[in-house]
Design brief:
8-stranded mixed sheet; alpha/beta; 295 residues; 27% helix
Length: 295
């Protein structure tokens, strides 16, 4: 009898849980870890802009540069194609090459801020990814011919020592939420960067050199404010305000010709060395605008 009682006790302790026990336990199981959400492709931001003593809150959606998770961002060196022909011995352009269809002062053209994107999301994402790889943390950056967006990664204000900009529209610069500081400047009227010598580690310019009527002088200023071993990154796509682009740009609207022009500017700027041309265009469904770098 004693043996039978012990056996019964042992079997009872090993019995399977009831259905109620199983359901109750399931309620307290840890939730399955879901796959990481991709970063947002755009964010809503609000900045306070003061103009003529009045403060206005400006809310705008901004592309983050994260892009579609399906997109790829290959970097193709196209220097051999663009730079295959030797550069001339002397500066090859005359004042006529920098005439424009619309010679009205540029501040009039930008009297009303243009809070729009001048390149599509694929081109923005390609440039943002490139900046993320190529600009070292802790840098002092200058973005020339800037606007309400600079296409830097969204965390650059925390990662960089400073982000400064110049541009034609003071209102657009005030709307740029990544800047540490800015100074409005019309480089076609006065091709001088309002900063001391050797102030920056990196100088960027996004799809804007096609509008500069004195690019040689501007490039000289870029090297003046750049620190030793600093970097210049000129980016270009295939869009422009045609009537505001200079003649050397509109004479041949091919990407190859435009990269050659930018490379020529850089070649004739003492201290910058041999230019390099890169195709960094995003690849994948829905991409369209190309993106190129000359550095």
């Amino acid at each position: 009898a004693m043996a039978i009682t012990l056996l019964y006790t042992l079997v009872s302790s090993l019995s399977l849980p009831t259905r109620r026990d199983a359901i109750s336990s399931a309620l307290f199981l840890p939730a399955a870890v879901s796959a990481a959400e991709p970063p947002p492709r755009e964010v809503m931001t609000t900045v306070d802009v003061t103009e003529k003593g009045k403060s206005v809150s400006v809310s705008r959606k901004r592309l983050t540069g994260a892009g579609d998770p399906a997109w790829k961002y290959p970097i193709k060196d196209v220097s051999s194609i663009i730079l295959g022909e030797p550069f001339p011995d002397k500066w090859p352009y005359s004042a006529t090459d920098f005439k424009r269809i619309d010679e009205e002062i540029d501040t009039t053209f930008y009297k009303f801020p243009k809070l729009v994107y001048h390149i599509d999301e694929g081109a923005v994402a390609a440039l943002t990814h490139y900046y993320d790889k190529e600009i070292p943390d802790g840098s002092d950056i200058l973005d020339i011919c800037s606007s309400w967006v600079s296409h830097y990664p969204r965390d650059f204000p925390q990662r960089m020592k400073s982000i400064t900009a110049t541009g034609i529209s003071g209102i657009e610069l005030a709307c740029n939420d990544q800047l540490s500081a800015y100074k409005q400047a019309d480089l076609n009227t006065k091709p001088v960067l309002p900063f001391p010598d050797k102030s920056f580690d990196v100088v960027t310019c996004v799809v804007s050199f096609d509008y500069l009527t004195q690019p040689k002088e501007v490039m000289k200023e870029v090297t003046r404010v750049l620190r030793p071993n600093g970097k210049v990154i000129l980016s270009q796509s295939n869009r422009c305000f045609y009537t505001k682009a200079v003649g050397v740009w509109t004479a041949d609207m091919s990407d190859r010709a435009h990269l050659r022009v930018l490379s020529t500017y850089m070649h004739f700027t003492p201290g910058l060395g041999t230019p390099k041309a890169l195709d960094i265009s995003a690849q994948g469904p829905g991409t369209n605008d190309p993106m190129y770098i000359v550095e």
